Amino acid sequence: MHDARQQIEEQAAEWLLRLHEGELSEAQRLAFECWKQQGPHYAAAAARMEEVITRMQALRGKKAPARAALNAAFAQQKSHRRKRAVRALLLACSLAIPAAALLISPYPQQWMADVRNGPGQWQTLQLADGSTLTLNGISAANLHFDAKQRRIELLQGEILVEVAHDSTRPFIVQTAQGTLRALGTRFVVKREGDVTVLSMLQSRVAAQSANAQQTLEVDAGSRALVSTHGVQLAGSIDPASINEAWRRHQLVVENRPLPEVLDEISRHRSGRVQFDRAALQSLRVSAVIPLDDSEHALQLLAQTLPIKVRSFTPWLILVDPDDSANK
Amino acid sequence: MSVGEPPFQREITALYSEHHGWLLAWLRRKLGCRQNAADLAQDTFARILNARESVASIREPRAYLSTTARRLLIDQARRKQIENAYLQELALTVDALEGFQSPEQIHTTLEALEQIAFILEGMHAYSRQAFVLYYLEELTQQQIARQLKLSERTVRKYLIQALVHCGHSLDT
Question: How close is the nearest chain B Cα to the Cα of A20, in Å?
């Protein structure tokens, strides 16, 4: 009896697989229907398998997270048996990996950067020429220092640069959008999507767009936006408060849309801050926000704005408009 | 157990005598291991006994038993692993997804994933991998063969085994 049932199940699986492989002609489809009619077990076996396939297919919209979740569900069991083998393999590979990684890296270039900084961190580096470089939040840069040049390639995030004087080697900060040539100086450079934002704190910088069509000298107290095809001034800043904000790990914002502020907070968190950009765009923020404690930062925003902040595990925080509107 | 016992124990006794055999047979088919199935069936009744909720009013005792067994097999620690992995990956890929995932949608998906993990439990590792790659990731059998370093014929065989296993898991 059990063998007979096993046989029916295997036949059902065979039919469903063929169906999925797209091989069934009209005649075969009819044959499958006839097969199902042979008894209650037949159709039921096929229906159960189809049910599981449907449930799997329903997750296709979230392939990567679903796969990660299923891998995690079964990772534990493997680890006992495989731990030792994996350890041996790691040892064998540890010499080979760095060389191979330099040839073709599957990772974003930030992962291979000379200097990297993580969420909630501030890192100040004394460079060989006496200049200092401070990185905040998720940031990454490559350093190109030799006898002829001092060049920092900003890949991601935000840096504060304090340039030491050296008349023989120009000091340059480079991004995908352009180059900033320091004329003895202190300034902040930030990558924001397609734009590089330059905030001048002291002295001057010559900013040039990547297509070399436009160059602009930017003075202390000014902000400039550099894109691949142009440089434009974008209002004034208060150098003293920006200096202070860097020193105290704060974000100073004046009348900026909430989504921009949330983006900035995200850069200082390892998890995701998720929100509907359009729904929050009309809310504007003027505040001094602590960046080294993003939980607190979000709480402060929730206290002053009509929003709800809900946290689902350390990796996911949702920010929604608060429709009850009693604030 | 005798007649003098409290009603709750009598209810449990009734549940046990009517459905333990069925639960054991189902788990044995699903897990493919007599010993694990016997342990899990025992734990399932122990859990219900400890919860001390009335079981007399349960309308579908078999669904209740199978859900309890599922909760034991995919325990809290593993549910947490599933949830963490899902949310972490979701956070990384959310920009590529259409629209916004509400907490309700996330909850529904996690529930579905937990059920699928239970269905896949007890499946041969290659069958499980092939099954996920084929029906979730939409790879072809040829691509799966390359990835798992197996012949296409073997991949097909594992897929058949996987489907049979799925059938058993839902055969309550």
Answer: 9
Over its C-alpha atoms, chain A yields an Rg (Å, rounded) of 29
Q: Range of A210's domain?
A: 117-241
Q: How many C-beta atoms surround the C-beta of residue A43 within 10 A?
A: 15
Residues A267 and A215 grouped into a single domain: no
Inspect the interface and report whether the beta carbons of A48 and B116 lie closer than 8 Å.
Answer: no
Distance from CA of A213 to the nearest CA of B (A): 33
Same domain for A219 and A156? yes
CATH number of A184's domain: 2.60.120.1440
Is the CATH code 1.10.10.10 the one for domain B76-170? yes
Residue A188 sits at the chain B interface (C-beta within 8 Å)? no
Lowest mean pLDDT among A86-95, A209-218, A264-273, B98-107: A86-95
A101 domain-assigned: no
* A297: Cβ contacts below 8 Å, ≥ 6 apart: A251, A265, A289, A290, A291
Per residue in B121-149, pLDDT (tens digit) is 889 999 999 999 999 999 999 999 999 99
Residues 6+ apart with CB under 8 A from A168: none
Residue B153 pLDDT > 90:
yes
Q: What is the pTM of this model?
A: 0.48
On whether residue A261 sits in a domain, the answer given is yes
Asked if A68 has any chain B CB less than 8 Å from its own CB, the reply is yes
Please state the domain extents for chain B.
7-73, 76-170
Tell me what the mean pLDDT of segment A243-272 comes to. 84
Portion 70-89 of B in contact with A at CB < 8 A: 74, 78, 81-89
Looking at the 3D structure of chain A, how many domains does it have? 3
Q: Does A273 touch chain B (CB under 8 A)?
A: no
User: At what angle are helices A63-93 and B103-120 packed, to 10 degrees?
Assistant: 60
